[in-house]
Amino acid sequence: MSNPLPARALELVETHRSYAHALAGEILQSLPAHVLREDVESAAELGLVEAAAAFDPARGVLFKTFAYYRIRGAIYDGIRK
């Protein structure tokens, strides 16, 4: 099975995974108690992968800034389901 992400995106995911988990932890504190940490962290990782795949460094934005919005969005999308 081939990996659909280019090496650049894989590197971004690996180097920012702890950031995604930290952001998930922050958001989890404001969510109802029935929302599971694992669900929030899974959604955060999905958002991180999506951000890494879509990131264009030529736009002059830091990846962490770009990823922040996609990770948050993925978490809130995930808990709505």
Tell me the radius of gyration. Answer: 13 Å
What is the makeup of the main sheet? none
Could you state the CATH homologous superfamily? RNA polymerase sigma factor, region 2, helix turn helix motif
How far do the termini sit from each other? 29 Å
**Distinct helical segment count:** 3
- Along the chain, the helix and strand elements come as HHH
Topology:
Elements: H1 7-28, H2 37-54, H3 63-80
Task: List the main descriptive attributes of the protein structure presented here.
single chain; 81 residues; mainly alpha; Rna Polymerase Sigma Factor, Chain: A; 3 helices; 0% strand
Task: Describe the protein's architecture and organization.
With 81 residues, the protein is an all-alpha fold. It has one domain (7-80): RNA polymerase sigma factor, region 2, helix turn helix motif (Rna Polymerase Sigma Factor, Chain: A, Orthogonal Bundle). Helix content is 72%, strand content 0%. Helix 1 packs across helix 3 (63-80). The mean pLDDT is 95.
